[in-house]
């Protein structure tokens, strides 16, 4: 088959596989179509279905949940090309700029959204576009912390790290002192998703960059930004991590090619003992590793700044072109209500699609008995969201490519590489007319 015909065949197959999305004239029914970025048949997808079913029971509106993980944004683009966007998309806060700039999103009137006044102002910040208007209903939030093998830390007789130097020493002990007691030198300190897929290297590094007072870009005027990858505080954080890869050699082998899916498994298999990550994997690790073997610790303040970690989460996006506009608004209101938030939290079980509730009327301690969630909640007070540039995705990808390079090549000069990255980000901001 020729390449052209093969491409047509692949696109046709994808289109057939997604037929019926949205509630336009081509839809198979008038159910409210809800897309969520989760693996099909996962615990998280099941929680999304419970949320949708509860909404149907409360409102009478029929729903159809579509859980997709791989190539989620690509498939959304395909649906947009066919003018068959789903009615609702539950997706990352960092995707707002990309979707809004393509005209996919309906503006959200915060004052007319029932329950909108109960949501935290920090969460509303993540629903704000580059023009200062709201384009989503906040749904879930998260900040980052260290999930650490407590049994290993006690085995090597060390205290929880209070500084970056302490953290480095703990990672070295996990690498060199046989914390699992199997008589072999087969453990690492850090497990890191340091690959470039979906910008993971930047995603991981951002919490340490923010903990050190650094940033990728900073606001210069309303809607205008300046690149700051060459800021000494940013350089210091990236250098700290390069030292872990190259000097201390405390990072799990193969990290520079790994995404989070692989890194979760590396941590579960006992190949490393310190994972800087969000709360969404806590219940999974409690089940797979053992509740008495893991602890959650705050990210130490960097030598030049902090405290702060990456802040992110998911929004409920009301998509353009729907024939079910009233139902769209009703679903957004249900999702942000205390009832909707509690369903999404899923208590202490695996499969939470609401990590930290954004509705201030929800008592997280009353819903979750595991006190380790409190560390993530406290970190959220100083969380830093991606700024509302028209499109954050290429900024994360460009910075990830640069950061990954200095972690993979120990001869690379971090300061020089970050200067080059700064030039790339400046060019990207110019192309988005946000410079």
UniProtKB/TrEMBL annotation:
The keyword Acyltransferase does not apply. Keywords: Signal, Sugar transport, Transport. The keyword Signal applies. One of its GO terms (molecular function) is maltose binding. InterPro entries: SBP (IPR006059). One of its GO terms (cellular component) is ATP-binding cassette (ABC) transporter complex, substrate-binding subunit-containing. One of its GO terms (biological process) is maltose transport. Belongs to the bacterial solute-binding protein 1 family. This is Multiple sugar transport system substrate-binding protein.
């Amino acid at each position: 088959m020729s390449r052209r015909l093969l491409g047509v065949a692949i696109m046709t197959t994808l289109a057939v596989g997604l037929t019926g999305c949205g509630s336009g004239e081509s839809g198979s029914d008038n159910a409210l179509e809800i897309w969520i970025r989760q693996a099909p048949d996962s615990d998280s997808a099941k929680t999304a279905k419970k949320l949708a079913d509860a909404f149907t029971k409360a409102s009478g509106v029929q729903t159809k949940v579509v859980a997709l993980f791989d190539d989620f944004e690509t498939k959304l683009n395909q649906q947009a090309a066919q003018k068959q966007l789903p009615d609702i998309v539950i997706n990352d806060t960092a995707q707002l700029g990309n979707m809004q700039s393509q005209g996919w999103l309906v503006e959200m009137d915060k004052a007319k959204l029932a329950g909108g006044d109960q949501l935290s102002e920090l969460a509303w910040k993540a629903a704000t576009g580059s023009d200062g208007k709201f384009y989503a209903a906040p749904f879930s939030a998260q900040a980052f912390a260290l999930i650490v093998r407590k049994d290993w830390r006690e085995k090597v007789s060390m205290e929880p790290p209070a500084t970056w130097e302490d953290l480095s020493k703990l990672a070295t002990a996990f690498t060199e002192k046989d914390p699992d007691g199997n008589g072999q030198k087969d453990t690492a300190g850090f497990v890191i998703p340091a690959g470039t897929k979906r910008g993971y290297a930047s995603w991981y590094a951002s919490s340490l960059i923010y903990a050190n007072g650094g940033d990728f870009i900073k606001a210069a005027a309303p809607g205008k930004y300046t690149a700051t990858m060459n800021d000494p505080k940013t350089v210091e954080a990236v250098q700290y991590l390069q030292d872990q890869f190259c000097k201390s050699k405390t990072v799990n082998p193969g990290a520079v090619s790994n995404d989070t899916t692989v890194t979760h498994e590396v941590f579960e298999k006992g190949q490393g003992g310190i994972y800087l990550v969000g709360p969404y994997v806590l219940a999974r690790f409690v089940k797979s590793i053992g509740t008495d073997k893991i602890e959650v610790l705050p990210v130490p303040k960097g030598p030049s700044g902090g405290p702060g970690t990456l802040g992110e989460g998911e929004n409920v996006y009301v998509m353009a072109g729907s024939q079910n506009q009233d139902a769209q608004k009703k679903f957004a209101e249900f999702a942000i209500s205390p009832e909707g938030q509690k369903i999404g939290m899923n208590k202490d079980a695996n499969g939470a699609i609401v990590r930290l509730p954004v509705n201030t009327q929800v008592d997280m301690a009353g819903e979750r008995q595991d006190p380790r969630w409190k560390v993530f909640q406290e970190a959220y007070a100083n969380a830093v969201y991606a700024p509302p540039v028209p499109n954050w995705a290429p900024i994360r990808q460009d910075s990830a490519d640069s950061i990954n390079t200095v972690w993979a090549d120990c001869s690379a000069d971090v300061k020089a590489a970050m200067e080059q990255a700064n030039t790339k980000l400046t060019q990207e901001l110019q192309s988005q007319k946000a410079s």
